Amino acid sequence: MTDSVSTVPVPEAVGKLYDRLTLTALDDGTFNPNIHIGFWDTPDSEATLEEAVDRLTDVLTERLAVDESSSVLDVGCGVGGPGLRVARRTGARVTGISISQEQVKTANRLAEEAGLADRAAFTHGDAMKLPFADGSFDAVMALESIIHMPDRQQVLTEAARVLRPGGRLVLTDIFERAPRKEVPHPSIQKFCRNFMVTLADADDYVGLLHRSGLRLRGLLDITEHTQQRTFQELSRPAAGGERPEALGQTNLPDLFQPSDMLGVDEFGCLLVAAVRP
Hints:
- It is a single chain.
- This protein is of the alpha/beta class.
- It has a single domain (11-275), classed as Vaccinia Virus protein VP39 (Rossmann fold).
- The protein is 35% helix and 19% strand.
- The protein contains eight helices and seven strands; from the N terminus they run H-H-E-H-E-H-E-E-H-E-H-H-E-H-E.
- It has a seven-stranded mixed sheet, sandwiched between helices.
- The longest helix has 18 residues, at 11-28.
């Protein structure tokens, strides 16, 4: 597949970026166990950003269809917020993997503090080559993480490999919505440069999944529920979103600000669900 923004992320560099983001947030008081976008069920929803972020985790969890007998792999687990929520709400055993050593360290600390270390554990590793045996998990989730990986096909193939027959994969990805432009909006380019991200082509996803040995169960454009409202909330002064340090970007050139994306509705979000036959 061809991404709309061509710079390919390097896993080790992504790991170092998130090491820095994690340490900066811990140091300056902006730390949050959830570092993904929110989901609002309706345009007039009065849910806060924090509530909407949890809601997106729940939307994925509902599609995973797991319970206390299930084992879940959280690919690109961040600092553990979503994985711990899944473990707490469903009773499932959650294994998280991140390319960032600092994220893994923080996630395991949070699991201990939450009394969930017996249900949730986090490890350092590369989603391009998962350190797990075939058929190890009942479900795989990837919440806003495949965007940082250099080869979506390889990630999906690895996810299929570690899934048991009948196991589900649910993920979110970002893409450039129609009408596509020859050159993406400058704010999209800035976002992708600052955070080592590529955009998916939504038209490629059926083929990607099938070549990975997965069957499509759902491909939804959830942009209207997620992106613009998230950037609006982050742009409010009370959210601290207009301070570069709030995103851990004090050492990055051409700093991205949440307000850069206001009105850029071609920056889309996909929700993808699939099953291993």
